[in-house]
Every structure is written in structure tokens, then in C-alpha cells.
Amino acid sequence: MNVNYLTAVMLLALTGALLPVINRLFRISSVLGGVISTFGYLVALFLLLISDTGRSLLNGFFTTDEVSRLLGILILVSSWMLALVVYWITKRDKFVNELIASVMVSTAGALLLLCSKNFISLVIAMELMTMPTYLMVLFAFNEESFEAGVKYFFNGALAVGFILFGVSILYGMTGDFTFKALASNLFKDPLVALAALFILAGFGFKITAFPFHFWGPDVYDGTCPGVAALLTGISKSAAFIALMRVVFEALPVISEHLSLIFALIAAITMTLGNLLALAQRRVSRILAYSSVAHAGYTLVAFASLSVPMSITGILYHSVAYVFMKTAAFLSFAVLLYIWGARTMDDYKGLGKREPVLGALFLIFLFSLAGVPPMAGFISKVFVFTAAVKAGMTWLALVGLLNSAFSVAYYIWIAKQMYLEEPTIEKPVNSANKVWAVVPLAVMAVILIVLGVWVNPVLNASALYISRLGF
Amino acid sequence: MVLLSMILVPIIAAPFAWLGERLNKDIPKFLSLAVGVFLSLCTAYLIVKYPGNGFAFNEVYKIYPPFDFNLHLAVDGISLLLLGITAFLAITVTLSSWNVDRPGAYFFLILLFLGPMVGVFASLNLIWFFIFWEFTLVPMFFHIGIWGAENRIYAAMKFFIYTHLASVFLLLGIIVLFLHTGTFEFEKLVGIHLEPSVAKLIWILMFIGFAVKMPVVPFHTWLPDAHVQAPSPISVFLAGLLLKMGAYGLLRWEIFLFPSTTKFFAPLMAFIAVLTIFYAGFRALAEDHIKRMVAYSSINHMGFVLLALASLTAAGFSAAVYEMLGHALVISLLFMVAGYIHHKTHTWYISEMGGLMKKIPLLMTMFVIGVLAAVGLPGTAGFVGEFSVMLAAFDYWGWIMVIVPLASALSAGFFMWMLQRAVFGPFSELVKNLSLKELPLVENIPLAMYIAAFILTGVVPSLVFSLFNPAVNTFAQLFK
Questions:
Q1: Backbone angles phi, psi at B434, to 5 degrees
Q2: Which one of A157, A237, A390, B209 has the minimum C-beta count within 10 Å?
Q3: Does A385 contact B179 at a Cβ distance shorter than 8 Å?
Q4: pLDDT 10s digits, A149-161
């Protein structure tokens, strides 16, 4: 049995659980907290790197394969970078260690979600990932974040409710929780199909797909941006992978029917996300709606599920997404902390004030827009290649046109930062920026490397495809 | 390693230009000049060592062989010529921007632009071609948006969104092509058989991408704005390199790959070309804004390139490639001088100028030489280019092409009229009261280099023709 992966998850969660305790006892500073959490991340990362693949854990509840290993490493790295940046921007807050503790526990849940093998482990992992985030959304402790927290809690509860309802119907009809049970009994009883529908709807909430997307931008905008980075980057990416497992391992028989539904949802989601993003004045809302649009792009890959390339597309897009979205929100968080910049008007001339941070933010924005050589470009290539290969050229065209028009708002931020004259005179907080710049730079480098060196992701997807038996 | 180093050295040098500014304001420009010299030396080495035909200097960096996602660099005569233009313009543009403000960021972007530019012309892998192609937009956007004229932000946004939208069609074409052939490699794609309907779809998708870059009517509207608002040295890059990317991509990745489909669409190409030539010509005639006029004449020349390509003969392709060189040298000179005129007189409008020749004779003499070359004076590259284009067009399309010399007359018309109003003639109210100075030496050198280059290639055209003719002849066999 492969204990390394499980140990990594448990150590991460334990470090997260102990951090508040240590903080209560010894009143540690944010620097010491950063060191402790970094230690936890490093140990977990090391264990993930040496973990082997193709084993199942806890009697078939979890499986570690190449997909969970690759995504696990990448999610862990981006979560670590997120923790460092969040420490930096909230170092004066006395609850910062508790916040990071929640980040670590939530990340542990995301790691488990990547390798869940049946519906019970899926729900458990998803709850482990989500529960700490209910606390985190309230962290900013202002009116906006209360509203966001309530919205997020009810929507999250609804999502899990949908999934649990679907799973309980499934168990009632088949007496089995495994993905295979759903696959083999789908047409035996209409109730099982209803179960599948409920499970998919639950996922729709998680990945903010139309028509379950309403909560997304409000929550991402209302809470503090460091938390939004985790919600929209890491949690969503893990949910993409879990959805991929459900679709390809539990629902392979109805791919033809699902395909068109996914295609329509994808087309609506990305168009809606991009159109609404164009209309926003606040940068956090632009990023939030672009996150909705990106859920649409991923759904394009899901829609082309009749071809193996779709797995490559989903995987690559999740990989790129976890870095570019997390990093984009973190850049926004850092700029908010230093300059108090919220709206597009505040962003005027910010690139001249913060050349390095601005350039990093641009890298993430261009990656989101799909400009080479960042990973966001090559992931879009795979997503749309899958769509064309599955015979949905119209969907690929819709997606590509969406992607082209989405450039308008990304480039608008670039324009505000570099082509306009500054409006904000003085920084709100001035501090040594090294610990904000280094993690973001690491993420930018990974993003560029993954945009050119495609092997890790393509190899993982090739192995997964061959194991599925396409 | 030579080709890879030509791509990587500028990119690696770029951050040093940015950082170097803090030490000394002169570091960026000397670094950029050094990279320009390096590119020229590399190109010279490649030209000397080039065996005469076929693809040489193959460098394959395998990344993911199952999808042919490999960086494959190699050059033939056509790419070598375009690499030569890139290296030449790298030097002249650096010299022309000698006293730019905020040199660190400026030359950072110049260097960031040059590396992918080399990649576009040297890549034999379609997806890498696209990666380089698309990345060139980013530095250009900031160049236009930061150092441009009054309306720069609008122009930069329009440039980026418009050309990015076009690239989307190109990318879709590439994806469809990949799915039907399973490869991105040029050498595997040449002569591959596709169903005619698929080939036509791919052809149209890719043509939109290339046509916007070239640009041809009706996809040209981004260019006058971008050119007018961009600083003059960046206009040189736009006209000299960015437009060439479109023409080169059309030739290499579309005409050579789909000979029979191109034959099907050749009348369309010729029609668009003639339309472009006349539309741009008449727009230039009506234009009072001097840089906008030069921009339309640039579109007019790219129409000639497309016309030559549409003839689908060895002579036509040769003429097109030659015309690309001529256009790069001549239009660059005109853009630079138009920029200087504005810098000195603070007006863009021809109607407000007059008698400039008496005030700044040296600059205006160079301007007149450039205009004459653009019109097609024998002894300059402009003549050889236009003449060979017309020959090829006559040869293939017959007497219908008698209208093309008329277009040449049109171009002579708008240029001469502009000269008569702006450069010669009596002083205008505005110019009379100005005390104008000639340019400093460092800004005159690039202008002299353009003139020397287009006279040299105009007097001895075989210098360049011999470089790319074997390659062109090989590919022209596909159309027999």
C-alpha cells in the first residue's frame, strides 16, 4: 500500500491543525508561523515526490495514480506559495496563523479529492476541502465578507446536498458506492440516472458552471483576495479533476448524451463569464468572472469526452489554471495591500510604480488570456483540439472567439497599469516586498516552463488514458 | 546551435537591458546594438555556409515527439533573407532610437521582440511558429502604447485585439490541420494529401490569420492607426517585420503546403490583391496626414506582394520575396523621415508643410530618394520588385493585369503630389517661421543604410535572387 501520499496529506492536515494550537500556547509571530507551515509543505512535497503510483489506499477508497500525483504536487506548490504571500499581506492580523492553518487543511482535502475512488471518499474529501474555507471566507470580518460567507455557505451546502442526495439514491438502488456501480447500473433504473444528474449538478456548483455560477463572483469579490485565490484556483482545480474521474470512470456509457449538455453549458458559461467580466469596474470582479469563463473552457474539454484528447485538455487546463488563477488573485491581493488598488481607476499607472509585481501580474493575465509561451496558451490548444477532434468545431470556434474577446479585459488591465498615468500617490503599506515577489515569481516560472515543456502533463494524461482503456 | 542562440540571446539579454538602465542609461542601447550585430554576424555566417538549396542548419529539440511538439529550427533561402532583414532592422532601429526616453524598458521590449521574430522565420514546426508569431504582439503592444503619439492607447488596444482575433482563426486552422495529419512538421506536411473540403476550410482559416497581418483589404483597418500612433522606429518594425510575418506565413505555411487548394483560391487572392492595391492607392491619394499616407502606401505594396504570390509561379514567388525586401527597406526609410518631419515641424499634415527642402536639404534629399524608390525608380529595389511582380502577374493572368501598371501610376501620383506640396514649393506659413536643423549623425546613419541597401539590391538584384531562387524553384514544382 502506498502510504507516502496518505502520510503527506495527513502531515499537511496535522501541521495545519497544530498551528493554531502552537499559536494559542506560545503566541508565535507570523514569520515563525511561516517557517512551521513551510516545513509542513516541504515534508508533504517530499513525500509526494517519492510516492509511487497505481496503488489504492484504504481498501479502495483512494487511489494514487499519475494524475493525482502530478496535480497533487502542483496544488501543493501553489498552496505553499499562496500561504507565503498570504502571510506577507496579513502579517499584522493576529489570526493569520489560523487562516494559514485553514489553508493547509483545505489543501489536504484537495489532495485527497484528487485521488478519491468512490463516492463516499469523494464527498469526504470534498467536505474536508470545503469546511475550512467557510471559516476563511469570513476572515476579512467586514460586511461584504459576511454576505459572501453566508452566500458561500449556503451554496456549498447546497452543492454537497445535491451530491449526497445523488449518492444516497445510488446507494439505495445498487447498494454500492463505487464509481463502477453507477457506470453499470445507469440504465437499469431512471432513479440511478437521476442520481447521476444530482451529482453533476453538485459539481456544477463547485466549478461555477452555468446555471450554478451566481455565487462565484460575489464570494470571490467579497472575501479577502488571498482566500479567493484558494477558492478559485486550488479548490476549483481539484474539483475539475474529481469531475473528470466521475465523468470518465462512473459515467462512460452516456457520453453521447452528456456531450451535448456539456457543450451547451460550456458555451453559455464562457460567453456569460466573459461578457460579465467586460462590464466590471473592480479588478477582483474581473478576475472572478474570468474564473467563470475558465470553467467554461474546461467544460469544452468535458464536452469532447468521446475522444482521449479531452482528458489531456482537462488535465492541462487544470494544471495551468491552478497556477495562473491563484497567482493572478495573489498579485491582486499584493497590489491591494501595498497600494489599496481595487478598481480599474486605481490600477492606472501601477505598473510604473511596481515594475516587477506589475510584470508578474501581466504574465498571469496573459496566461489567462492564452498568449504563448505561458501554460494557459498550450492548455487552450489542447482543449480546443479536443473539441475539434470530437466533431464540435462550432464549440471550438465559440471558445476561441470567446478567448479572443476575453483578451479585451485582460489587456485593459495591462493598459491601465502601463499606459496610463498613476492616480494613487502614496502606498497604503510600504514594506519589503521580497516575500511577496519571490512566490509569485516562482509561479510565473512554473507557468512558463509548463507552457513549453509539455511532457509531465502529457505523459500523465497518456498513462491515465491508457488505463481507462480508450 | 546558431539558430537557437539567435532566438535565445536577445531574450536572455532583454532583462539585462532593463536592469542595466539603473547603472547607466547607455547600457540598454549598446546592448541592443550588440545583439543586432550578433544577429547580423550569425546571419552572415549562415548565408556563407548555406549550401545553396533545401533546408540547412537543422536543429531539432525534441519535447514531445508523439504530437510532434518539437522545436525544429532550420532555414532555407527565403528564411535567410528574412533573417537578414530582421538583423539589419535590429541595428537600424536601435540607432534610430538612440535618444529614446526610458531606454531600459524600451530596449527590453525590442530585445524581447527580436528573439521570437527570428523564431517565426526559422521555425519549421507549425505550433512553434504560432507560439513565436503570437508572442511578438506583446512587446509591440507596449511599444505602441507607451511611446506612441497622442492617440496611442486606442491604437495599441485595437492593434492587440484585432490581430489576436485574427490569430485565433490561424490557430483553429492549425488545430484542424493537426487533427487531419497528426503532425506539425513542415517537411512532413509538404505534399500531404487532404480531402479538398478539409483543405479549403484550413486554407480559409489560415488565410484570415495571415491576411490580417499582411494586411490586405478588408482586414487592414488596424494598420493605419497602429502605424500613425507608433513611434517611428517601431513603425519600422511593424512595416519591416510584422507585415513580413504575414506574407512569409502565407507563402510558407499555406501556399507551399496546399498547392491545389491555393490554385483553387488563386483568383480570390488576385482579386483581393488588386483591390488592396487600388483601395490603398486611392486612400493614400486622399490622405493629408503624412504618416497615414505612408501607411497606406505600405498596404499598397503588400498588395503587390499578394498579387505576386497569387501568380503561383517560380517567378511570382521570387518577385514576392524580393518585394518583401524592397518594401522593408523603402517603407522603413519613409516612416522614419515622416516621423522626423513631424518631430521638427510638429505637424502631421501635408497641407501645412511646404518648402521643407530649403530648410533641411539633407533629410529631404533622402526622403525624395526613398519616395522615388517607392514609386519604382530604376536602380532601386522598388523598381526591381514592382517590375518583377508585374511580369509574373502578366505571365500568369494575361492582359487583365494591364490595370496593375495603372496602379503604379497611381502610386507615383500620390507620392509626387505629396513631394510637390510638402517638400518643394514655396514656404508654408508654418515652415517659414521655423528654424530647422538637420538630424544628428547617429540618426542619419540608419537612413543612409536603408538607401545604400535598396540601391545595392536594386542595382545588383542577383545578390538576393540567387539566395532564395533555388528554394522558390523547388516549391514552384508543386504547382506544375
A1: -90, 145
A2: A157
A3: yes
A4: 999 999 999 999 9
Q: Using CB atoms within 10 A of its CB, is residue A364 exposed (0-12), middle (13-18) or buried (19+)? A: buried
Nearest CB to B179 within list A377, A388, A453: A388
- The residue with cell 536543429 is B59
Q: Do A415 and B153 touch (CB under 8 A)?
A: yes
A116 phi/psi in degrees, rounded to 5: -70, 145
Strands A62-64, B56-64: parallel, antiparallel or unpaired by DSSP? unpaired
Helices B290-310 and B243-250 meet at what angle, rounded to 10?
10
Distance CA A49, CA B327 (A): 56
Contacts of A434 (CB under 8 A, 6+ apart): none
Beta bridge partners of A56: A63
Distance between B256 CA and the closest CA of chain A, angstroms: 24
- Does residue A1 register a pLDDT over 60? no
Predicted TM-score (pTM) of the model is: 0.94
A42 vs B217, higher pLDDT = A42
Which among A279, A371, A278 has a CA at the least distance from the CA of B160? Answer: A371
- Helix spans in B242-360 (H): 243-250, 259-286, 290-310, 314-345, 356-359
The residue to which cell 532555407 is assigned: B76
How many CB atoms within 10 Å of residue A356?
Answer: 14
- Tell me which amino acid residue A444 is: A
Q: What is the CA radius of gyration of chain B?
A: 21
Q: How far is CA B64 from CA A89, A250, B61, B69, B426, in A?
A: 40, 30, 9, 5, 67
Shortest Cα–Cα distance, A170 to chain B (Å): 39
Element (H, E) at B447: helix B441-459
Q: How many CA within 13 A on the CB side of residue A402?
A: 30
A389 interaction partners in chain B (CB closer than 8 Å): 179
Q: What pLDDT is attached to residue A75?
A: 95
Interface touch B64/A458, C-beta < 8 Å: yes
The whole-number pLDDT of residue B14 equals 94
How far is CA A399 from each of CA A148, A239, A241, A265, A405, rounded to the nearest angstrom? 30, 21, 21, 12, 10
SS3 label, residue B62: strand
**Cβ–Cβ gap B146/A396 under 8 Å:** no
Q: Which residue of B has its CA nearest to A396?
A: B172
Q: What is the pLDDT of residues B219-233, one digit of tens each?
A: 999 999 999 999 999
When pLDDT is averaged across residues B379-389 and rounded to a whole number, the result is 89
Stretch A167-196: mean pLDDT, rounded?
82
How many residues does the structure list for chain B? 480
A63's CB contacts (< 8 A; 6+ apart) are A54, A55, A56, A57, A115, A117
- A112 and A238 Cβ atoms separated by less than 8 Å: no
B20 contact partners, CB below 8 Å, separation of at least 6: B27, B28, B31, B104
The residue written with cell numbers 447546497 in the block is A158
Tell me what pLDDT residue A92 has. Answer: 77
Q: What is the pLDDT of residue A255?
A: 62
Q: How many angstroms separate the CA atoms of B336 and B227, rounded? A: 11
> B385-411: string of b/e by CB count within 10 Å (b at 16+)?
bbbbbbbbbbebbeeebeebeebbebb
Phi, psi at residue B97, to the nearest 5°? Answer: -95, 25
Instruction: Write out the three cell numbers for A74.
Output: 502542483
Q: Which residue of A has its CA nearest to B66?
A: A458
**CA–CA separation, B353 and B432 (whole Å):** 9
Percent of chain A exceeding pLDDT 70 equals 99
Of the CA atoms within 13 Å of residue B103, those in its CB half-sphere come to: 24
Under a CB-based contact definition with an 8 Å cutoff, are residues B410 and B281 in contact? yes
What's the half-sphere exposure (Cβ side, CA atoms, 13 Å) at A183?
15
Q: Give A468's Cβ-side CA count (13 Å radius).
A: 28
Alpha carbon separation from A218 to A119, A140, A145, A152 (Å, rounded): 29, 14, 9, 9
